[in-house]
Specification:
Number of helices: 8
Helix content: 55-70%
Strand content: 5-15%
Number of domains: 2
CATH class of the largest domain: Alpha Beta
Shape: elongated
Structural class: mainly alpha
Radius of gyration: 21 Å
CATH superfamily of the largest domain: Glycogen Phosphorylase B
Order of helices and strands: HHEHEHEHHHH
Strand order of the largest sheet: 1-2-3
Length: 176
């Protein structure tokens, strides 16, 4: 259990008794997160951008609280749709989901496999997206910019690129 500098949570975990066969390492704060993640079967987390990216890069299944700020709720919805995360609303549901993830190896494997979608060629996909956007036209200082048209063009380019990425992924998946 990595709970940062939260001494209260650290002490709670230290006192807790776990079922036989359940190994919980209570670390508190660490600078060596990748080491602990590489030894993990899944991660319990909120849905912040940086931590979620780190977890996806490690291909780890995620169990995420539904008590989130609004921007993270969108992340959670997306990750659940992609099959890389499941969520919980309360302590009772949390316990059930932890047990599910601990006992269902196939579920964990599928969630890990789904996480690979995000890391296969992301840097190339981002570069293709940027390079595929229409060239910017620089206007005079006094010209008005129609931001609605700019926004529509960007959304259109992203949609087209997402379709291409999905096709590439589907082709890669079917060739396995």
């Amino acid at each position: 259990m990595i709970n940062g500098k939260n001494v209260k949570d650290f002490n709670k975990i230290e006192k807790k008794k776990f079922e036989e066969g359940i190994n919980v390492v209570n670390v508190g704060f660490t600078d060596n997160l990748p080491l602990y993640m590489s030894a993990s079967d899944f991660v319990v987390n909120k849905c912040g951008g940086i931590s979620t990216t780190e977890i996806l890069n490690m291909s780890l299944p995620m169990l995420i609280t539904e008590k989130l700020p609004s921007q993270e709720k969108y992340n959670l919805k997306y990750l659940k749709e992609k099959g890389t995360a499941i969520s919980f609303k309360n302590k009772k549901e949390f316990a059930k989901k932890v047990n599910l993830l601990m006992k269902d190896e196939n579920l964990r494997k599928n969630m890990s496999k789904n996480a690979n979608y995000f890391k296969n060629n992301s840097i190339y996909e981002i570069a293709d997206l940027i390079l595929g956007l229409p060239k910017a036209e620089y206007l005079q200082e006094n010209d008005n910019i129609n931001y609605m048209n700019v926004k529509k063009e960007i959304k259109k380019a992203v949609r087209e690129n997402n379709r291409d990425i999905r096709r590439k992924y589907e082709n890669c998946s079917s060739n396995r």
